[in-house]
Automatic annotation (TrEMBL):
Pfam families to which the protein is assigned, alphabetical: DUF4216 (PF13952)
Residue ranges of the region described as Disordered: 444-479
Domain DUF4216, chain residue ranges per copy: 316-388
Biased composition regions of type Basic and acidic residues, renumbered to the chain: 444-457
Signal sequence, renumbered to the chain: none
Stretches with biased composition (Acidic residues): 463-479
Lineage, uppermost ranks: Eukaryota, Viridiplantae, Streptophyta, Embryophyta, Tracheophyta
Protein name: Uncharacterized protein LOC130496903
Amino acid sequence: MHIEKNFFDNLMNTILNVQAAKDAFFDWISKDVEFPDGYASNLGNCVDRREGKFTGLKSHDCHVMMQRLLPFAFKELLPKNVYEAVAGISAFFRDLCTRSVTPECIENLKTNIAVIKVEGSIVAQFIRAETSNFAEHYFPGEVQTKSRKPARHDDRGERATYYVTVPDIFTDVGRLSGKPKNRQLTEEEHSQLQIYLLTNCEDVFQYERIFMAEKRFEYRHATEEELEALKMREFAGWMRTYVSDGMARGETINDWLREMIWGPKYVVKSYPRFASRGYAFTTSKRRRSSKTYNAGVCSAAGDDVYYGNIREILEIVYPGMVGLRCTVFYCDWYDNTPDRGVTTDAFGVTSVHSRRKLPYYDPFILASQADQVCYIKYPRVTNRDDPWVTVTALNPRSRVQGSSELEDPLQPNTSGNLSAAGDVAAVDLVIDFTDFGDEAVVHVEDEPEIGEFHQDPDSDSSGGDDGDSGSEDEPEIGE
């Protein structure tokens, strides 16, 4: 991180000598850059306009600016060749810190770095840190250590308990805070919430498969899109009938399922804040009175990633003896159509169109399925009302819940699409600091240029059934 800070300091000292770029960059940092609470310092307070520089930046602040802001900050403020050089260095450090990389990415990193003499070692400091971490496990419980100190947004790590075993969506860890307000769900909201919770509960998947098998037999020429729309309309009602008939036949039905099929209460509690898995979420209404931004969320569904903002944080309660409850976010989603609503450039910067919304109604998401992001405007010189904003994915702080015994890495999970540098003919990548002959010099052989790495999705697809469907007339899917 110290090497990264040295790069950042040198870049900033050079770039801020350009007066026009400096003024626009400082205005953008002071007005438009908002990170979630605890993610970084208030960068606007670090701007010293009189001296024309940053003051009071910590190493972590330099790390955030280097990897999260510089890849796109100077897109309009500097000439294209200068901007691409700055963005390339930033993308290099970001790829260097990624938690998982491809062999092609490793080759790109190797090609893009110069071979120089090693002048320092981190072994001594590493041994001291490991010794401290090991020794603190032998301190009495009342001794406050860094690892024992509760995080700022601690969720307490306690799961909800019931007198029967219930699905995981009703036992997720999280802490609601702030003054709650009661509100009534509309009929449309209640219906959408019920079908969303049913289709996202693993213990209900077996019933969903039975429903889809029946509908595929009944509507043998229907497309998958038509069957999916049919499921959204009829699955909740079919589920109530199917479970009720099973109970009438004397089948054993879990208590939680008997309550879940009738849907949650119409009256829900709306909270202003929610802490879970190291994230601290707030509603978009609180942004007006805060310098931090904690309402941005994203959710992955297969190969699709949805970006949005939290409108409400709702505690959902089911009537009955079991008392099922869970936390959901009511969100406003952006259009996730590639190149229309979402784009990713060569430096790995993802942008969304802030004025284009998801074309269909699907506002709810389980709090356990939401990851936090923030949206930052481009520093524009022209076209200041440009609706495209960048997406910055955030890493959770403190406790991370998971089923793996291995600790989850805190680095980003993806790397950029930056290819190996091609125009380096005039640059000597070997610097010889010794006079010990040719054997002491590491020579870099010419390697073919490695292009961008693309991972092709599975191409298997199932075609329609063109066989004879019999003489019976097939019913049409009604609305």
